[in-house]
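My main concern about presentation is that the manuscript never shows what a single data entry looks like. In essence, backbone conformation is discretised, so a fold becomes a row of integers matching the chain in length. An entry of this sort, consisting of the sequence and the corresponding backbone structure tokens, reads as follows:
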Amino acid sequence: MACSSVLTTSLSLTGILLSLSSLYITTMLSKDKNFVAPCDLSPTLSCSSFLSTPYSTGLGLVRPLLGEDHSANLPNSVFSIVVFTIIFATNFFSNQLVTSLMLGLATTSLLFNTTISLISLPVMCPISLTSLVTTMLMVLTIMCQKRSLDTERKDKYGYSIPTTTTNNNNKKGFKKFI
């Protein structure tokens, strides 16, 4: 497993954990209006305020387009859990197509998270900021992974052909000494 695959796996697991903690805070806020999230650091850096905005559910699109009671109007952390889980599961396949799909999914997630964060300013959530940075690093890591797959030599079946670092122009490559 390449270094970029290990990084992508670590970042996707980090994203899943961050999304689960965000989902926990969202659930607790909906059950108890007096709940104070542990990540409420200031009035502008507050998970409670950020996760109470209308953009914190349905990626900010479902409520205005389909209504507040639509089944897709879930907390954004649910969508993030799905994205990070798909990337975690598909990361174990070293294939150009799968890596391209992972890159597209991670980039789309990054664009949505960035847009929601910018719309919600000046209020920000530390968990969402960390998730945004995690997604950004994951996009860069998947880009490196895709680039390394582009440079590998493949046979006609799609398997990598091993390369050596030595010069193969030596005509006396192997001598048997007795």
